[in-house]
Design a protein that fits this description.
This protein has 9 helices and 10 strands. By secondary structure, it is of the alpha/beta class. Strands 3-2-4-1-5 form a 5-stranded parallel β-sheet, sandwiched between helices. Strands 6-7-10-8-9 form a 5-stranded mixed β-sheet. It binds S-adenosylmethionine.
Length: 248
C-alpha cells in the first residue's frame, strides 16, 4: 500500500541513518526534501540516487495536494528534512496533515532528534518535559515567551543557534534566575560535541568566555521550577489579585 514515510536523518554523524532509513530512501518513488542540495549530499554518501522534490515552509501548503495525489495514485514517497526528525522545528506538518486527511498511510522511520538526544545525556528530570523549539528571534518576544514559562515545573527544551545563544541565556537568567540548573548540548554527534552543565549564570559565563563555545548548534535544557519557586509565584499571583481588586 502506497505510504508516505517520514524518515529521520542524522543530526551530524552520518552513520546515524538507520539501515531501514537507507532502505526506504532507496526504494520510494521520490523524496520530498527541505533542501534538495543538502539531501543530495546525504544520499550520495549512501550511493542512493532518487528524484527529489523541494518541500519547504514556503511551498508546502501549495505542493501538499500534488504530493498527496501521487500517493493516492499508488506511489510511495519519503519526507526528510535537513537534519533529524521532520516536523520537529522543521517543515512537514502540512503535508502529513493533508496525507492523513486523504486517508493515505503515513509511517515513521524513526532516528535522530536533537532534543531527545540532548535530553538523554543531560541528567535533568526527563520523565516529563516540554519541547519549546526556537524562541522568538527578537528580544521582547523572546522574554514574553519565557515569562509564560516562569512557573513551568517540567524540564524545558529549547533549540538555539550560535548567534543568539548568549542573548537567550541572558534572558533565561532574568526570568528563571541565575541559579536555575541547566544543561547546554552543542554539536551532538559531531567532532566538537560538548555537553555543559551547571546553572544558567555559569553556562552563560562559559559561552561568553570562549568563542569556541558559541559555535555550532545548541539544545538548551532548563530544569523546571521547584515547589518553593512555584509557591512563591502562586503567592505573587494571589497578592496581585488582591491588589487589583482595589485598583480602579
Ligand atoms: N528536526 C531537527 C531535530 O529533529 O532535532 C531539528 C531541526 S531545527 C531547524 C535545527 C536546530 O536543532 C538547531 O538550531 C539546534 O538547536 C538543533 N540541533 C540540530 N542538530 C544538532 C546537533 N547536532 N547538536 C545540537 N543541537 C542540534
Amino acid at each position: 500500500v502506497a505510504t508516505l514515510y517520514v524518515v529521520a536523518t542524522p543530526i551530524g554523524n552520518l552513520a546515524d541513518l538507520s539501515p531501514r532509513g537507507q532502505e526506504v530512501l532507496r526504494t520510494v518513488a521520490a523524496i520530498c526534501a527541505e533542501d534538495t542540495r543538502h539531501t543530495g549530499q546525504l544520499l550520495s554518501h549512501f550511493g542512493i540516487q532518487q528524484p527529489l522534490v523541494a518541500l519547504h515552509e514556503h511551498n508546502e501548503e501549495m505542493l501538499a495536494e500534488r504530493i498527496v495525489a501521487r500517493l493516492k495514485a499508488g506511489e510511495s514517497l519519503a519526507l526528510v528534512s535537513d537534519a533529524g526528525t521532520p516536523l520537529v522545528s522543521d517543515p512537514g506538518f502540512r503535508l502529513v496533515r493533508a496525507a492523513r486527511a486523504a486517508g493515505v498511510k503515513v509511517s515513521p522511520v524513526p532516528g535522530a532528534c536533537a532534543a531527545i538526544a540532548a535530553l538523554s545525556v543531560a541528567g535533568l528530570p526527563s520523565d516529563r518535559f516540554t519541547f519549546e523549539g526556537f524562541l522568538p528571534a527578537k528580544g521582547a518576544g523572546r522574554r514574553e515567551r519565557l515569562q509564560a514559562l516562569a512557573g513551568e515545573v517540567r524540564t524545558m527544551v529549547f533549540y538555539e543557534s550560535s548567534h543568539r545563544i548568549s542573548e537567550s541565556l541572558a534572558d533565561m537568567r532574568t526570568v528563571f534566575g541565575d541559579g536555575r540548573p541547566a544543561v547546554l548540548a552543542r554539536e551532538l554527534t559531531k567532532l566538537f560535541e560538548t555537553v555543559l552543565d551547571g546553572d544558567l549564570a555559569s553556562l552563560q559565563d562559559r559561552v561568553d568566555g570562549d568563542d569556541n563555545q558559541r559555535k555550532g548548534e545548541f539544545v538548551v535544557m532548563v530544569q523546571g521550577a521547584q515547589d518553593d519557586e512555584q509557591a512563591q509565584l502562586a503567592h505573587g499571583r494571589r497578592v496581585y489579585a488582591k491588589l487589583s481588586e482595589h485598583l480602579p
